[in-house]
Amino acid sequence: MDIHVNRNGQAFGPYEESEARSLYARGNIAVTDLVWRDGMAEWQTALQLFGARTTHSVAPPIVPPPLLPAHQVPPVPGYAAPPSSYGAQASMPQENLPPKLHWGLVLLFTVLSFGIFAIVWPFIQSTWVRSIDPRSNATMYLIGYVVLAVVGGVIDASSDSSGAQGFGGLLQILSYVLFYCGCYSMRRSMIERYNSVESIGLQLSRAMTFFFSIFYLQHHMTRIAAWKKTGNIKPQ
């Protein structure tokens, strides 16, 4: 059967299966390239379809063959759907990569900025999470966290009344609840994405998410970014 190949939104092929397997064995088709053929319900990675390579020889990247004939194929996860006619190669948007700042640098910048960086960085993380899961509410939780923390801090600092100070403290406690709701929302979206659409066996500990929050999530975001660049996933 003819096999279609998609790398970062750019289509190649179709190739006969024997030719595609030969290209895969030589390294022209990467293990992370998405492939599809008639009868498949959805796109899979080349590694899932062809299995592990028997050779690791280095070869130049795929040279685009002649334009694809008109053929209806299912949409590639993470990319715009292919057009029904290929009179010209369509330009397709590349998937948004996760923020890849090392978690140690996130911690360092947090310390150097007296905590301000730790308020800003979760919004960068949640924005990326929403790009892979439009249903994510992580950003809304984080907005609530900042608002309640600021209001609670102002009330606590500006009032001499014990009742008002207690109310301010309550708001600050609620702000932390919303912060962790945002973290666990990002965790859930990442697990769903990288154990179904792009299966890499991602595991995210609930306890580690609680104790290390954005730093723990950032560690795994950096792993995913490196995997998308190199095709190799580092151990968890």
Name a few traits of the molecule.
2 domains; 7 helices; alpha+beta; four-stranded antiparallel beta sheet; Dna Ligase, domain 1; 236 residues; 8% strand
Outline the fold blueprint.
Elements: E1 2-7, E2 10-16, H1 17-26, E3 34-37, E4 44-45, H2 46-50, H3 103-112, H4 116-132, H5 138-158, H6 162-197, H7 206-230
Antiparallel strand pairs: 1-2, 1-3, 3-4
Helix pairs in contact: 3-4, 3-7, 4-5, 4-6, 5-6, 6-7
In short:
By secondary structure, the chain is an alpha+beta fold. It is built from seven helices and four strands, in the order ββαββαααααα.
Describe what you observe in this structure:
- There is one protein chain.
- It contains seven helices and four strands, in the order E-E-H-E-E-H-H-H-H-H-H.
- The chain is of the alpha+beta class.
- It folds into two domains: 94 residues, Dna Ligase, domain 1 (2-Layer Sandwich); 128 residues, no CATH class.
- A four-stranded antiparallel beta sheet has the order 2-1-3-4.
- Strand 3 and strand 4 form a beta hairpin.
- Helix 4 runs antiparallel to helix 5 and helix 4 runs parallel beside helix 6.
- The longest helix has 36 residues.
Gross morphology: elongated
Q: Tally of extended strands?
A: 4
First-to-last CA distance: 37 Å
Q: What would you call the quaternary organization?
A: single chain
Within the largest sheet, what's the order of strands? 2-1-3-4
Report the helical percentage. Answer: 40-55%
What amount of the residues lies in strands?
5-15%
pLDDT < 50 stretches: 78-94
- Give the mean pLDDT: 82
Number of helices: 7
Tally of individual domains: 2
The major beta sheet can be summarized as: 4 strands, antiparallel
Q: Give me the strand/helix succession.
A: EEHEEHHHHHH
Q: Using only CA atoms, what is the Rg?
A: 23 Å
Structural class: alpha+beta
